[in-house]
Amino acid sequence: MKINKGxxxxxxxxxxxxxxxxxxxxLGVDLYHLGIYPRNRLGTFGIxxxxxxxxxxxxxxxxxxxxxxLCFSLYFFIPKxxxxxxxxxxIYSGILVWIFARPSFHIGASGVIYGIASFLFFIGLFQxxxxxxxxxxxIAVLNHGMLVxxxxxxxxxxWESHLSGSIVGFFLAYYYRKVETTFSQQKQVEVDEDxxxxxxxxxxxxxxxxxxxxxxxx
Length: 218
Fold this sequence. Notes:
This is Rhomboid family intramembrane serine protease. Helices cover 62% and strands 0% of the residues. It is mainly alpha-helical.
């Protein structure tokens, strides 16, 4: 079920972004004004819409691949809070961009992408169990190049969105550090299977011992 939900949510969000870009291209319009414009009242609408608006097909394709992998991973490894984490990353990182970023339109899903990567990495560190640490290791290896995007580098790239998403991901990971992951759920299933297979549990200790007294039929 969690795999199906992860696939459905990921495909739905990606489809919305692609549909909007195709509409832009076919109608000859530009929806960049639906992005976040910091400290501008009208720019607050971008907090809701900015992840779906992209500067071009190259930008959209790049974000599609990264978002698909990370969004599916979020639903697979942390299914209980995946939806909450996803919308909180989008809203809270958007608010940070609106407050602190440069006065320009900030668009694209890269802030959410950085947020998911940060969340998965840090929740593995906070939980300190082997399964969660595997998540952190995989995220670190696959996305080590993302660190470059956290600092100013070239025009047209919203490093503020990247940094905001990473910060929000860190705090959400700490907030949800006690949530069940796929690995902890699997461990519980294995324990339950062991108990049902054995059919009993040994309750003996130094204060309590079983004593068998066979019935004397004579």
